[in-house]
Amino acid sequence: MSDRESVLAANRAFYDAFESLDAEKMEAVWLRDPRIICIHPGWRKLSGWGPIMSSWERILDNVFERVGNDWFMVMHHGSPVIAPPDDEPPLQ
After folding, report:
1. 3-73 belongs to CATH 2.40.160.210
2. pTM value?
3. Would you list the DSSP string of 8-77?
4. 54, 56, 75, 91: which one has the fewest Cβ atoms less than 10 Å from its Cβ?
């Protein structure tokens, strides 16, 4: 596998971990090193293994909750949106 293919596979593994809501899979894609950095949308910069993994555990553990037979969203996060100039209507 080429370096390019390896990097693409690592990137794919991150998104697979995110979509699976599996903290262990998320841990497997991050380097265990104090110099790692993560910035979630709207959050301050996180540095180091502990704070970053703690943030992912909170995100992955609290996305949906089952009540009876139904699943409900209990947490959502997203990127900030830049407001359009005043002369343009907002996107809907």
Report:
1. no
2. 0.68
3. HHHHHHHHHHHHHT-HHHHHHHS--STT-EE--TTSPPEESHHHHHHHHHHHHHTSEEEETTEEEE----
4. 91
